[in-house]
Each structure stands twice: as structure tokens, then as C-alpha cells.
Design a protein that fits this description.
The chain is mostly helical. The chain has a domain of about 210 residues. It is built from 16 helices and no strands. The longest helix has 27 residues. The radius of gyration is 20 Å and the shape is globular. One of its GO terms (cellular component) is plasma membrane.
């Protein structure tokens, strides 16, 4: 009987159906994200920034955690989305939802073009290319100060009320509602992607890219698709930042932003969409608190936290908690 079970084919469709089901813990998690409205109203601006950072982290997790594409320049798409949404507003169209979609489409288009280069290299060359593209975009935006505002940032952004009714207030109620709604919608899309046959193919590419062509998989096509989707989501996150703050600084394209999002994923756990959200929350809350204690050296404590997490829980906080839960249940 055990031999029959061992030789039975893997039921991929059944596994995907089980993965797609919502657990009670997930429902509680999303309901908990509404708590800032009631218990932490003075931190709603920070909460909206966490939601935007989490969305950006999800975009990177799709390519890093699921497809194995290592990147150090994904802020390029975040910044392109931010500048696209900002420029649309500056030149007379401040409707937020259409601006959001146009910015995401623009970033996705650039991501599609870049993907032809990305799928042809691996490992160190891939890191260098993504880093180089990010630095080139940063310097291009800096040199085009007549358009982007350069180091002074893009000013004059005016975002209209959502549905011509919900105005962006100083307390952050509308900003957090808007950012959280965008995060939830993009999370649903990302969750559907990773829990599909396409998501399984991406995992196969991540585990062994050389074996995928042997089973007839167009691995380059898969990588191009997910890279384009990831770029669009990153651009949408950047557009959210521009619309909720009414300013786009040059650091939206900086290497620091690309590095920070990788740190968020390491903290939360790669290959877990919830890890991106948890990692973003931990990183930004820690930055907010530590910079208040020591504005100059707060990165020291972030580095220490990162080292502790990597040494104690190499798969991130959610990975470590999952391992503990499996050990506790005896599986």
C-alpha cells in the first residue's frame, strides 16, 4: 500500500485548490489591518506608507521569492510609476484611479521591454544588470530636472477626491483606505497567480531553470510575464505614494529603496506573500521608532535586527513561525 502511495502522481490541481482556500487566520489578518482606524488614528499616515511599501514588497516577492529573479534595481519601476502619476496630475488630470492605472501600465510596459534582457542572464550578471538599470534611471531623472524637478522633487501634484467625494485629508483616513484597498486587490491578483499552474511553473524555474525546457515549458516566456506583472504592481505602488503625499522625490528611484524592499522580504520571508506585508510593517515601524530615538544611527539597529532574524530564522519570520507550527503539530 505504501509503494502505491509513493508511486502515485502528484495531484497538482488538488494541491492548488487547497492552497487557494482562505484560512480563518487569513481573514483575521486582513480584519486586523482595519484596527488603525479605531485604535491608532494618529498613525494612519504611517499605516498608509506601510501599505504602499507592502505592495512594493509583494511585487518584488513575485519575481524573487517565486521565480528566483534576484534584483537590486526594482525601485526603477516604483519611481517610474510615481513620476508617471505625478506628471499626469501636474499637467491637469488629477483623477486618482485612472492615474493609478495609467502609471501601472507605463511601468509594466517598461518592465516588458526590460524583461527581454533579464531572461537572458542569471546570477551575478542579473544582479549587476538590475542594479545598473536602476542607477541609470536615477541619474536620468536627476538630469531631467526640467521635467522631474531633480533633487527638489516633483511639485504641483494635485490629487482629486476619489469618486469625486472622498478627499485626501491631513489625518490620513482616505490615504490609508485607498492604499489598503489597492493592497488588497493586488494581493488577490498575486495570490491567484502564485496558486495557479503558472505559479507552479514559476516555482519550477526557481528550483531548476535547466530542467523546465526538458518538460516543454517556455521558461523565458514565464519569466517575462511575471517580470512585467511585477513591474506594473511596483509602478502602482509608486503611483500610490505620489497621490497620497502629493510629491515625488528623487529617492523614489534610489538604490536605497531597492535595498530596503529586499530587507523587508528577508525579514518577513520570501516566497510568502504575507511575508512581504509583515516585513514591510516591521521595517517601517522599526524605522519610525528607532529614528526617533537616534536619527543618525538607526540603521545600526535595523542591521542588528536583520542579522538576528537571518541567524535564528533563515526563512524569515513567517518561515520560522511556520516551522515552529509544523514541529508543534508533529508534521
Amino acid at each position: 500500500m505504501s509503494d502505491v502511495t509513493a508511486n502515485a502522481p502528484f495531484d497538482a490541481q488538488g494541491w492548488l485548490r487547497r492552497q487557494s482556500r482562505w484560512s480563518p487566520l487569513e481573514v483575521v489578518f486582513w480584519l486586523a489591518l482595519l484596527l488603525p482606524f479605531f485604535f491608532f488614528p494618529t498613525y494612519l499616515t504611517l499605516a498608509s506608507q506601510i501599505a504602499i511599501a507592502a505592495l512594493f514588497a509583494i511585487s518584488v516577492d513575485l519575481i524573487l521569492g517565486y521565480a528566483g529573479i534576484v534584483t537590486l534595481g526594482h525601485a526603477m519601476f516604483f519611481g517610474l510609476g510615481a513620476y508617471a502619476a505625478g506628471l499626469i496630475s501636474v499637467y491637469g488630470w488629477g483623477e486618482p484611479l485612472s492615474g493609478l492605472l495609467l502609471a501601472a501600465a507605463f511601468a509594466g510596459l517598461v518592465g516588458f521591454v526590460v524583461s527581454f534582457m533579464i531572461v537572458r542572464v542569471q546570477h551575478l550578471a542579473l544582479i549587476m544588470i538590475t542594479l545598473g538599470l536602476g542607477l541609470l534611471t536615477y541619474e536620468l531623472a536627476n538630469s531631467m530636472s526640467w521635467l522631474t524637478g531633480g533633487t527638489d522633487g516633483l511639485r504641483g501634484i494635485r490629487t482629486w477626491p476619489i469618486f469625486n467625494y472622498f478627499r485626501f485629508d491631513l489625518w490620513g483616513y482616505t490615504a490609508y483606505s485607498y492604499s489598503l484597498a489597492a493592497l488588497f486587490v493586488c494581493f488577490l491578483v498575486s495570490r491567484r497567480i502564485v496558486n495557479s499552474s503558472f505559479g507552479l511553473a514559476l516555482r519550477g524555474v526557481r528550483e531548476n531553470v535547466r530542467r523546465m525546457p526538458a518538460i516543454g515549458s517556455d521558461y523565458r516566456g514565464h519569466l517575462q510575464k511575471i517580470y512585467t506583472i511585477s513591474a506594473a504592481i511596483a509602478g502602482l505602488a509608486g503611483a500610490l505614494m505620489a497621490q497620497t503625499t502629493n510629491v515625488v522625490a528623487l529617492d523614489a528611484l534610489s538604490f536605497q529603496r531597492s535595498a530596503d524592499v529586499v530587507v523587508m522580504l528577508i525579514l518577513g520571508g520570501t516566497g510568502r506573500l504575507y511575508g512581504a506585508i509583515v516585513g514591510a510593517a516591521i521595517f517601517l515601524i522599526a524605522r519610525d521608532q528607532l529614528s526617533g530615538v537616534n536619527p543618525q544611527y538607526w540603521y545600526f539597529w535595523i542591521g542588528l535586527l536583520l542579522m538576528v532574524v537571518v541567524l535564528v530564522m533563515p526563512k524569515g519570520i513567517l518561515g520560522g513561525l511556520s516551522a515552529l507550527a509544523s514541529r508543534w503539530s508533529g508534521r
